[in-house]
Amino acid sequence: NVEAILGQLLALGLQADILFVDDSSPDGTGELLDQLASAHPNVTVQHRPGKMGIGSAHMHGIAWAYEQGYTQLVTMDCDFTHSPEYIHQFIKLGETADIVVGSRYLQEGSLSTWNAKRRTLTHLGHWATNFFLGVPYDATGGYRLYRLDRVSRYFLNTVQSRGYSFFFESLFILHLNHYRIAEVPTNLPARTYGHSKMRLSDAFNSLSQLVHLFLGKAINPERFEIVEPFHQDEATAKGLIDPQGWNDYWSRNDSKQAHLIYDLIAAFYRRFIIRPSLNKFILGNFEPESVLMHAGCGSGQVDRDIGQKFSIMALDISPVALGMYKKSNRSVKKLIHGSIFDIPLEAESIDGIHNLGVMEHFTEKEIADILGEFHRVLKPHGRIVLFWPPKLGLTVMVLKFVHFILNRVLKKNVQLHPAEITHVVSKKHAAAILNKSGFALKDYSFGIGDLFTHAIVVGEKVEYIKTNPRTAQ
User: Fold this and answer.
1) Where are the beta strands (DSSP E) in 346-393?
2) How far apart are CA 301 and CA 354, in angstroms?
3) Model-level pTM?
4) Please, which residues bridge with residue 337 across strands?
5) Lowest mean pLDDT among 22-36, 304-318, 399-413
6) CATH class for domain 234-472?
7) Alpha-carbon distance values, 78 to 99, 186, 312 (Å)
8) Does residue 415 register a pLDDT over 80?
9) Calpha distance 55→17 (Å, rounded)
10) Secondary structure letter of residue 419 according to DSSP
11) 112 — pLDDT class (breaks 50, 70, 90)
C-alpha cells in the first residue's frame, strides 16, 4: 500500500517532502520504499532496527522534521485509515492553529463502517481522555498537522509514552501548555490494508498511562510544562563521575508499573509532606533573600515555595535532574552541573546549603568529604539543613519491604532508586558526623511533621578545633 498512498500524496500537488518511517517491516516494505525514494527526490525513508512502538515512530519522524528545519508536518498512517484528501484542510486550518487534529467525532457516521468492538473502544477512549485529562479533541488518533515553527520542539522531551498512548499524552501536554488546537472532521473507513496492530496489552498500558497522567496533573503539574532542557557543558561533563547512576535514575522513561506507581507516590510525598517541613526549617534558619544552594537538587519539587523568598542555586550530578528542576523552579538563580565532592563555587560565597535524601547514599568517609566541601563554600556561621533518613524511618522500612516483595517474591529485579548506605542512628550520631567536619549541631528533629521519614539535621559552620576524640565528645 505504500506505492498507492504515495501516488495519492503526490497527486495533491503540494510543495512538500514525504518521510516514511519503517520499523524493519518483514514483508518487503522497506525495500520497496527504498526504490520509491530513488525514483522520487522528495521522498525519504528512515529505517529503524525493529518494532519500537507507534509512538516512538511518530517521535522519530517529528524529531527528524525539526532537525531538517521544516515549518509544518503532517503525520498519518499508511493503511488508508487516514485519507490524504483532508490534507489541504489541515494546512488551511494550520494558518491560525498550532496543531490540527483529524477528528472522528465531528462528522456523523464517520465510524459507521467499523465493527462494533472497534467503535466501542474508540468512543470509550475519547470519553476517557476528555473526562480524565480535560482534552476535548480526538486525542487518540495520529492524523495531525504540527506547526513546527510555533510548537516548541521540547514537547518531545516531556512525552514519556512510546506506544499508542503517545497520541493522547502528547495532545494532553500541548493542550496544557496553551497551544491552539483545531480539528478537521474526517470520515474513517474500515481498514483497507492490513489489520489493527493494537494488542490487548496495548489497551491496558494506555489505561495505565491515562491514570498516571490524571494523577500526575493533580500531584505534579509542573512535570508537563514544556521547557528548554538544561544543556550541559561537555568539558564540565567529562570531568564528572556518576557511579551511582543518578542520571539514569532521573532519565528513567519506561512503563513499568512499579516505577509509575513509585514516581506518583514520590511526587505526592515531596509536595504535600516534605515541602511544608522544608519550608519550616529553611524559614527558621535563614533570613529572606539569603543565597542558598540545594546540593543534590533532583527534580526540585520541594523548592517551589522557598524559591520565592530566597536566592537558590541548584547543583546536581545529573543534567536531566537539572532540567527537571528548571521546570519546577523558573526563578532559580543558577543551575550548576557538578559534584557535591567538588563544588564549583568560591570559598565562603553562600549563606546556606540544604538537601533531602542525599547523604544516606554515601559512606561516612564520603560524607565527611562532602561536609568538608560544604564547610569551604559556606560563609562564617553559614548553616546546613539536611533531611537524612534514619535507620528506623518510615520510608526506609517501607522501601525495604517493597524491594523485598518485588525482587525476592515476584522476581522482578527492580531497583526503585540508588542504594542507601548510611542512615542516621541518633542525635548523638549526627552530632559526631558534623563535628568531624567543622559543624556544630544546632537542631535535630524526627517526628510526625514529615511522618517520621527523615531526621532533620541542622548544623552551623564553626572553625575546625583539633582535639582528641574524648574532648570533642
Assistant:
1) 350-356, 378-388
2) 14
3) 0.81
4) 316
5) 399-413
6) alpha beta
7) 20, 16, 51
8) no
9) 21
10) P
11) low
